Amino acid sequence: MKFFIDTASVAEIQQAAELGLLDGVTTNPSLLSKEQGAPREILREIAKLVAGPVSAEVTATDSAGMLREARELRGIADNIVVKVPMTLDGLRALRVLSAENVPTNCTLVFNATQALMAAKAGATYVSPFVGRLDDISADGMQLIGQCCAIYRNYGLESQVLAASIRLPQQVTQAALLGAHAATIPPPVLRQLANHPLTDSGLAKFLADWEKIENRM
């Protein structure tokens, strides 16, 4: 499964890239608003840091506006993926962008029918929002499983990108269900490497080694 990082922080992206596990980046207007500088310049800097896809979201709500913004975003860098909302206008834009071979990410997907429509419209990635479904007592991981099953059933080429990840175990669950990728906030990405038994085991090894050194 591919690991994307869900942030617009250049510093966080640099740190994640140093781990050698970073396959891509997802941003959105909310994440970009937290950073200093012009959004287009931030995206340009991110695209230079990452060899993989960098999702950049349109803000227009009509298909014509989405297409205009999509072409502007694609002018930033070759690895920019245009993020489009799951609306009827978004589907229209996805169809046109797919015909132009523009990579896309259909965002704000909350049920399997939406995911199926996005795939049929030609989305490169489809982003079901796990955490936001859990917030309303729905089952976000069930949606990931449904999307993966539907895409397998019909040989659809869109990739399931598990989004709105809040917990490390959601990454594991998404991988077990067959999601192609997960986009992970920096704090959760760091938590993936942690386990209390790893910490206690390392502490014991170091304590035992200190005993050996004292005998030398």
* CA-based shape: globular
Query: What fraction, in percent, of the residue positions are helical?
Result: 40-55%
Strand order of the largest sheet: 1-2-3-4-5-6-7-8
Number of strands: 8
Separate helix tally = 11
Terminal Cα span: 47 Å
Structural classification: alpha/beta
Q: What order do the SSEs take from the amino end to the carboxyl end, as H and E?
A: EHEHHEHEHEHEHHEHEHH
Q: Mean pLDDT, nearest integer?
A: 96
Can you tell me the residue ranges where pLDDT is under 50 for at least 5 consecutive residues? none
Summarize the main sheet.
8 strands, parallel, barrel
Radius of gyration: 20 Å
Strand content: 15-25%
Task: Describe the structure using short key phrases.
216 residues, alpha/beta, 11 helices, 8 strands, 8-stranded parallel β-barrel, 17% strand
Short description:
By secondary structure, the protein is of the alpha/beta class.
Overview of the molecule:
With 216 residues, this protein is of the alpha/beta class. Helix content is 53%, strand content 17%. The chain is globular.
Question: Helices and strands in order, then pairings?
Answer:
Blueprint: E1 2-6, H1 10-18, E2 24-26, H2 29-33, H3 39-49, E3 54-57, H4 63-74, E4 80-85, H5 88-99, E5 104-109, H6 112-120, E6 125-128, H7 130-135, H8 140-154, E7 159-162, H9 168-177, E8 181-184, H10 186-191, H11 196-215
Parallel strand pairs: 1-2, 1-8, 2-3, 3-4, 4-5, 5-6, 6-7, 7-8
